[in-house]
Amino acid sequence: MTISATISQLDTYCREVANRAKVAAREMANLSTSVKNRWLLHAADSLVAQERALLDANELDLSKADEYGLTPAERERLKLTSERIVQIATGLREVAALADPVGEVIEGSRRPNGLEIQKTRVPLGVLFFIYESRPNVTADAAAIAIKSGNAIILRGGKEAIHSSQTITETLRSSARSCELPLDALQMVATTDREAVGHFLKMSDAIDLVIPRGGEALIRRVVAEATMPVLKHYDGNCHVYVDKQADLDMAIRIVENSKCQRMGVCNAMESLLVHRDVAPTFLHRLHDQLAKYNIEYRGDERCSKILADTVPATEADWSREYLGPIMSVKIVDSLDEAIDHIEKYSSRHTESIVTNCIQTADRFVREVDSAAVMINASTRFNDGGQLGMGAEIGISTDKFHARGPCGLRELTTYKFIVRGDGHIRTS
Amino acid sequence: MTISATISQLDTYCREVANRAKVAAREMANLSTSVKNRWLLHAADSLVAQERALLDANELDLSKADEYGLTPAERERLKLTSERIVQIATGLREVAALADPVGEVIEGSRRPNGLEIQKTRVPLGVLFFIYESRPNVTADAAAIAIKSGNAIILRGGKEAIHSSQTITETLRSSARSCELPLDALQMVATTDREAVGHFLKMSDAIDLVIPRGGEALIRRVVAEATMPVLKHYDGNCHVYVDKQADLDMAIRIVENSKCQRMGVCNAMESLLVHRDVAPTFLHRLHDQLAKYNIEYRGDERCSKILADTVPATEADWSREYLGPIMSVKIVDSLDEAIDHIEKYSSRHTESIVTNCIQTADRFVREVDSAAVMINASTRFNDGGQLGMGAEIGISTDKFHARGPCGLRELTTYKFIVRGDGHIRTS
């Protein structure tokens, strides 16, 4: 779907979208929880009721999958079914059940002079969300943004544009029914890449941009954005099997971290093994993972243990494979493991398997990543698994929000100060 | 103080400083509260003991004040005295008394599957702090950065460089005595502006840049920085006197907001008055402020009330005067006041004077600024006044930290997840 427009018209169109979002955001900030929840429940019902329209739109997208060169996995993610529509609706109902973060008094105090201070949670304002081909993301992102009191501008990829547009129209139609500001939820009516550039310049109207997709997209957004960006580039996640690990547990955790879903950001990509347990552990792991056809890219010591080791290059230590490959390094000590992680990790998720409390404690303190696991799979770095409810993304930055980002991470706060004619004397 | 160096050597020097800070930050993150406090108290004593050296260094700076064209006010801020050195030492002792934010468990839960989640506060890492001519800022910033577990690179202005260097050397000498990592506290050994540019490129080593100074400096930093920036450009703060205001209180609050200290970011710059009370209020205010020689830049209606009104231009509504000038606008309604603030405010601090609870409530909800005051002076937007203790700056951004930034605002968090062989099954 494109609008035929010269660049200058596109600029005007993008500005209008952003300005409408900004006006809606002011209204959203003061909207009651009940209106937001009513919309979420209404939208859930509407999506199920609109199944036919959604499947038709999705059919249109699927018919272009070859033209866009989608892989079988991408095509699978793009596909809507009755069951998936029900899942999307269930997601909206789950967001309705989450606590509304807006208005929460984070801290409050009465000063000795009688001044009352409330640090109160408020929405960020306008979000610009850029994503690729999974149509369910349209509904998820809209739900999280609006429940947290923000307006959102959705910019979906061309591969799913008909599905995403139809979902958006359904959600907006529910907004109209529920008296939620219509412009709190807008989808950019073009997949022209130029449009993204226009929005990224509007720091006066857009408070946060959230890009979800490949690393190239995210690097482009970071380079061009004039407002904060919530993102991670990749997830080069490590599991370190310590010399004091329970090896049965270690095998279970490595298998789950690497193989439960290979294409996700919290999957293990790099395995570190203490030299004392390396021969036993690697042979057993190799047997256990035989069914997955894993390629092991290892250092020299790994090659001596596993005959089918492919020699790892320097680049391998930083790679996010997202498939049946893992890098393997044998280390002499906890220090070497931590130093390796410090050097190569993308600071997303690292896990240690050990029975030694001191070792676990040092790993947790010294590894500087969004989530650090002890005796648990890296796959637990996920908003739902960590008890936060729905997430709009995972941040590997340290500023504002780190790790899974849900409702609260899409808010800021203001200081509300109540006096009775208070003036400062010093 | 300059180092003679070609640009390529300067680049190498800056890189070494940043790398040393990065190594120190890893050690700092795990330093006990007692070591940090011991350093603060030792440093406080040392500064007082080094009075002679500090005054001598300050004398050197003051001798160049003419050469650098400092105004009398700037010269006054630059000057150290015995009393001011004692104040700086007291500031360090106050930071020692504040709670250590590092290690705080912000949220914790045990999931139904037995997984234990702790969202734990950790330092940001390496801070790059750029500031201008007040030497006390050197000690304040170092204290806040180190108490919050960070390493800091200080880049002071040339006007106070000898004072700042001597303070830094004293603080580092205390670090050596207290076994605090020496490189957690470094001052850039050149005031060459090129050095700032080099540091701003090092997002791999520096986690946050905090510029304090004029708007031109801050805009340069924002334009060049590849890491997050904690800042405010200016403070165009408003007081709105509502039709239901207690006019005695309103006069007290406007006088305090505008006149207690005119050169600071939380001083009032723009006055909004409801038309119903404007004639009475403005005449009384004019009398009360006569001693300050205020220039009133007003709209047409203001001119009809105050004969000495200077007609305000469009630019006046956005101006931060930092001196005896205020802009004055008569508004017809609360809505007009809020719209005006929305359009022109720098989102730092706004205050309403009113006895109407509904009006106050709408003002607080709809004004999107870091601090919103009811019946209190704008001057209360300050870390100490809000009960946060020392502050390293005030943020008008919404991302990460908003308003005064103290110890906690210089931290992030990580998720620590403890399992017992937990793997994901869905």
Question: How would you portray this structure in words?
Answer:
Two copies of one chain form a homodimer. Chain A is of the alpha/beta class and 426 residues long. The first copy, chain A, has 14 helices and 16 strands. Chain A folds into two domains: 7-230 and 404-416, Aldehyde Dehydrogenase, Chain A, domain 1; 237-380, 3-Layer(aba) Sandwich (Aldehyde Dehydrogenase, Chain A, domain 2), CATH 3.40.309.10. In chain A, strands 10-9-11-8-7-12-13 form a seven-stranded parallel beta sheet, with helices on both faces. The first copy, chain A, has a four-stranded parallel beta sheet with strand order 5-4-3-6, with helices on both faces. In chain A, α1 (7-28) crosses α8 (193-200), α2 (33-49) packs across α7 (161-178) and α3 (51-63) packs antiparallel against α7 (161-178). Chain A is globular. The N and C termini of chain A lie far apart (62 Å). Chains A and B meet through α10, α14, β13 and β16 of A and α10, α14, β13 and β16 of B. β16 of chain A pairs parallel with β13 of chain B.
